[in-house]
């Protein structure tokens, strides 16, 4: 074997070893913990678990999904913000944790801009307004508004937590429709949906994935969705704009964040691994079946999305003079 060939092989080996070493430096041998700031069974949990297995394969590391619900997602988000920036603790960020909660809660314990390293936008998810038809027997959104206006204070809406996006959307709905509805907060969407199905509460704003099976079964009735266009999963359900309330058409999103000061090499390695996971056909099918649109993109694009959403939610809170109960 010639000396040049030996040197070329040695050089290639160095490149491969360097890549493996970089991965090891970024993530070590400990499991990667993916923190979901809401209870198991909700839309955020569905998204996280839909992609976790494929992410494990891409990182060649065990990825463990952990639920840390409470305070409209703020408890879990704060946990991620305060964790070590070593690539082993990641979080699923939502409109609730990065915008609605900080906008409504002056005592929010973390800074949504400085308190995280944005990695990638995972998905766009329509928010749907549903009612329990046994409690609210109406056919459409205009019928719902008339029904509630005739019964001030007699009905309730659930949310996944005080200060979360479902709470904020409900308060905005009340202000725009001039209705009086009692807010009932839960530690996540799943327990709220359980009580909604049982008739303990009457209506709820929540992400489509957790609501879709109950809508399809007829146990809950969809009034409208927050989205620029209708979803193929519910083609007969109008957007809020189509139903006459344009201000309520804000599509929700979810993204991946890490603690602040995560090294740039780890940030980019995670972004690329997650992007590959989102391109997996099995992941895309799971997303499509639940009404979830995968996004991807750059870390800078996700950072801009967070800043824009926070500004929007702060404006809504200020314009409507909304306050925590």
Strand content range: 15-25%
Please state the overall shape, judged from the principal axes of the Cα atoms. globular
The level-1 CATH class of the largest domain: Alpha Beta
Would you give the CATH topology of the largest domain?
D-Maltodextrin-Binding Protein, domain 2
Q: What fraction, in percent, of the residue positions are helical?
A: 40-55%
Biggest sheet details = 6 strands, mixed
Q: H/E order of the elements?
A: HEHEHEHEEHEHEHEHEHEHHEH
Q: What does the radius of gyration come to?
A: 22 Å
Total strands? 11
Output the structural class: alpha/beta
| Overall structural domain count | 2
| Lateral strand order in the biggest sheet | 2-1-3-10-4-11
Provide a count of the helices.
Answer: 12
CATH homologous superfamily caption of the largest domain: Bordetella uptake gene, domain 1
| Distance N to C terminus | 78 Å
Low-confidence stretches: 2-25
Characterization of this structure:
The chain has 325 residues and is an alpha/beta fold. It folds into two domains: 29-124 and 252-320, 3-Layer(aba) Sandwich (D-Maltodextrin-Binding Protein, domain 2); 127-248, Periplasmic binding protein-like II (D-Maltodextrin-Binding Protein, domain 2), CATH 3.40.190. The protein has twelve helices and eleven strands. A six-stranded mixed sheet has the order 2-1-3-10-4-11, sandwiched between helices. Strand 1, helix 2 and strand 2 form a beta-alpha-beta unit. Helix 2 (43-59) crosses helix 10 and helix 4 runs parallel beside helix 12. The longest helix has 25 residues, at 3-27.
